[in-house]
């Protein structure tokens, strides 16, 4: 359980819809997967129905290496929701597959986060039926 969360004030859960169901099914089994176009091989995230490159509807949920780097980040000094305990950081990561993902870091202070920092995925079971992908510094 992360220090970020206040269990007395449940945080909003991500909406799971047809387009992102495969992503969340992967997360629930502790596997990071992204959509990959079956026609041209383009990776895409966030999930969407059509390939932005070739407009194919054919896709598969393909395992990520789980590795990437911090592209940017922001630290909240005041919480926007009573379920989140400030200060906490939201990171934008660029994964090895080239897609970008919004998440949080674990086991690090906000002031220790830097652009280009190599990271790898970990899975945090937040509540019954809700697991989130988080990231930790590599090395
Ligand atoms: Zn394509």
Derived from helix and strand composition plus strand pairing, the structural class reads mainly beta
Distance between the termini: 23 Å
CATH architecture of the largest domain: Beta Barrel
The percentage of residues in β strands lies in 35-45%
Question: Could you tell me the number of beta strands?
Answer: 8
Mean pLDDT: 92
Ligands in the model, by name, code or SMILES, are: zinc ion
The arrangement of helices and strands along the chain is HEEEEEEEE
Shape: globular
Characterization of the model:
The chain is mainly beta. The chain folds into 2 domains: 14-63, no CATH class; 65-139, OB fold (Dihydrolipoamide Acetyltransferase, E2P). 6% of the residues lie in helices and 37% in strands. The strands form 2 sheets. Strands 6-5-4-7-8 form a 5-stranded antiparallel sheet, with helices on one face. The chain has a 3-stranded antiparallel sheet with strand order 2-1-3, covered by helices on one side. The protein is globular. The two termini are 23 Å apart. It binds zinc ion.
Which helices and strands appear, and what pairs or packs with what?
Blueprint: H1 21-28, E1 33-37, E2 43-44, E3 59-63, E4 67-76, E5 88-95, E6 100-103, E7 118-127, E8 130-137
Antiparallel strand pairs: 1-2, 1-3, 4-5, 4-7, 5-6, 7-8
Bound molecules: zinc ion.
The site of zinc ion has 8 residues, from loops.
